[in-house]
């Protein structure tokens, strides 16, 4: 895989709480320079100006997922009004751990209704904190609620980020009906390529340049 090919899988990500306007502008510039698919940002930094070829992804209910569904929906609606192409929402992880998958589905559905297609909806299930059974059930809830992607991680949970096992299991669960995004803890180009081989069609990376250039990244996302 060439550097240019790998870059097309990347949501170049800046979600640091201390990110400044200058940091956001630099992230957008770098994403465009590297040929990333999108730049993934926090909702409070909107609106932003992007080059035409670069998509905008915005997180919702991030990073805890413990926001009321109405708040997540309002956040998604506002992001869409500010020209977000994609929404990356966090589920209520506690509900998934407890097996309350109807609540997980309802939470996702509220965001889907607030930001209907063609906005792309990615659902972050925090796979490192879930059993295999809960990963499968959460993916099924995302599909039932109308999501377009299931995503491994926020990159902020102490349980960890993406794993090859989780990506493979998520892909087996959703097949070709949904796509899979791997994020959190991807630090090398070999990590990135392995995630793609396991079934990921998108990667959340903050150290995109280092990974594309086959240098080890720093940080957790």
From TrEMBL:
Provide the reaction this enzyme catalyses. Answer: 2-deoxy-D-ribose 5-phosphate = D-glyceraldehyde 3-phosphate + acetaldehyde
Q: What is this protein called?
A: Deoxyribose-phosphate aldolase
Gene source species: Microbacterium marmarense
Q: Entry's NCBIfam families?
A: deoC (TIGR00126)
Asked whether the UniProt record includes Isomerase among its keywords, one would answer: no
Q: Does the keyword Cytoplasm apply?
A: yes
Q: What is the lineage of its organism?
A: Bacteria, Bacillati, Actinomycetota, Actinomycetes, Micrococcales
The similarity annotation says:
Belongs to the DeoC/FbaB aldolase family. DeoC type 1 subfamily.
Q: Which UniProt keywords apply?
A: Cytoplasm, Lyase, Schiff base
Q: What does this protein do?
A: Catalyzes a reversible aldol reaction between acetaldehyde and D-glyceraldehyde 3-phosphate to generate 2-deoxy-D-ribose 5-phosphate.
What GO molecular functions are on record for this protein? deoxyribose-phosphate aldolase activity
Q: What is its EC number?
A: 4.1.2.4
> Any idea which residues are catalytic in this one?
88 (proton donor/acceptor), 151 (schiff-base intermediate with acetaldehyde), 181 (proton donor/acceptor)
